[in-house]
Specification:
The protein starts with 8 loop residues before the first strand and ends with a helix. By secondary structure, the chain is α/β, with parallel strands linked by helices. It has 16 helices and eleven strands. Helices cover 50% and strands 13% of the residues. The chain has a single domain, classed as Spore Coat Polysaccharide Biosynthesis Protein SpsA, Chain A, CATH 3.90.550.
Length: 420
């Protein structure tokens, strides 16, 4: 069995008693409420993954609140989404992030000098969802809407370490093995073929800097599944690009002592597969670009590393050798486990990622500014009751959606505090 510990606490699944953990977490959540936040596009409602997620969440007695941060094109899509999540027994908030009421609140915030309307995508959805979730929860788990292997152990494993007070954990990150089906094969190309060899290359070039050692301690740094306490949620800047996951780890590095950070094993895991893309503005290449620039920016901010184009070229050279070595190792692992593995295709992919390093590095040197949404404490300094306004907007939107679909009254799904 694997007992290895990292720079951060690694929580293995060595045959944990899920039923016992669930009972304990349900008990703890009575005094320290929990929430699950799911950013989602409307299109996910049409796919089986989100139905599976909803059905499993309905059985999670340890989840006290659910926040769905939805991007919908029109009113009818929002009404459909409210109906879709109606079976959930927990107080559920379907936040229409681009709806009129939420947009009006953000416009008011922009009018006072804090413009969040310039941000788009998952970053803004996460920011809005965290603000709303912190009103009703001490610990918040976040995951995507496209997980095809989802079950109730996912939120259980993410939330439990935060609520057991003697652990002292403030942030808990998922790690797992991404194994695809038809045929069975390794997925997670950006983690396997880009981030892992990139971090090794940067450590060889710049030495074992604390931030690089910290990143290297995460077994799956790009996992979109994590949990954090409400204090951290309010004091964390959210990256607004495809480097969200690694950028969030940089924020945690700045704000949390290492002894309060953990990662937990979710087992086998899979979600929607993405394309490589034909340029650094598309697909996984765009993700790699944003990840590299985030890491370089944090290296300069936290480790006072001055980066030049010569460094970028050197990283590219070192990266190729490290990635090629990993491709050979993955080949052996895959063959042993009867997994399909196209070694040539993997090597073509890493060559594309090498080119991303050169292009993204040059872009970073010409403009090192990042795209980060200010933390919630900054927004609350402008509008102290911003979260309450956001919650009122969601309650009103959902009430009108239920009227439009002739559904049950809203008040039956809310906690007394939320209904006031």
């Amino acid at each position: 069995m694997d007992f290895k510990q990292e720079l951060i606490t690694t929580i293995h699944d060595l045959g944990c008693d899920v039923e016992k953990l669930s009972e304990r977490l349900t008990e703890l959540s009575q005094t320290r409420p929990t929430a699950v936040l799911v950013p989602s596009l409307y299109e996910e409602l049409k796919r089986p993954a989100l139905t599976q997620i909803r059905d499993h969440l309905s059985q999670c007695t340890f989840v006290n609140n659910i926040v769905i941060c939805l991007y919908a094109q029109d009113w009818q899509e929002y009404v459909d989404a409210v109906n879709f999540f109606e079976p959930l027994p927990q107080p559920t908030f379907v936040l229409w992030e681009n709806g009129q009421r939420v947009t009006a609140i953000l416009e008011k915030l922009a009018g006072q000098g804090l413009d969040l309307l310039q941000f788009r995508g998952k970053g803004r959805a996460v920011w809005l969802g965290l603000g709303l979730a912190t009103l009703n929860a001490d610990a918040i788990a976040l995951h995507d809407a496209d997980i095809t292997t989802y079950d109730s152990t996912y939120p259980l494993k993410l939330l439990y370490p935060l609520l057991e007070q003697e652990f002292g954990i403030a942030f808990n990150k998922a790690y797992y093995a991404r194994i695809g089906e038809n045929p069975r094969s390794f997925h997670g190309r950006v983690t396997r073929l880009f981030v892992t060899p990139l971090i090794t290359s940067l450590m060889e070039l710049f030495g074992y800097r604390d931030y690089l050692r910290y990143l290297n301690a995460y077994r799956y740094p790009l996992s979109g599944e994590f949990a954090l306490n409400s204090d951290l949620a309010l004091n964390t800047r959210i990256p607004a690009n495809w480097g969200l996951e690694v950028g969030l780890l940089a924020e945690v590095y700045r704000n949390v002592a290492l002894k309060r950070i953990a990662q937990v094993d979710l087992g086998l895991f899979e979600h929607k597969h993405q394309t490589i893309g034909s340029s650094t503005n598309q697909g996984l290449q765009k993700m790699c670009r944003d990840i590299l620039q985030s890491i370089l920016r944090t290296l300069t901010e936290t480790e006072q590393v001055a980066i030049s184009m010569d460094h970028i070229r050197a990283v590219g050279v070192k990266y190729r050798r490290e990635a090629q070595n990993l491709a050979r190792q993955y080949f052996v692992d895959a063959r042993f486990n009867s997994l399909s593995y196209d070694r040539h295709k993997e090597e073509v992919t890493l060559e594309q990622f090498e080119q991303v390093i050169l292009e993204a590095g040059a872009q970073y040197l010409s403009d090192a500014r990042g795209a980060q949404i200010p933390d919630w404490t900054s927004a609350l300094a402008v509008i102290p009751d911003l979260r309450e306004q956001l919650q009122d907007a969601v309650i009103s939107d959902m009430a009108e959606a239920r009227i439009a679909s002739d559904g049950p009254s809203l008040t039956g799904t809310l906690t007394p505090a939320a209904a006031q």
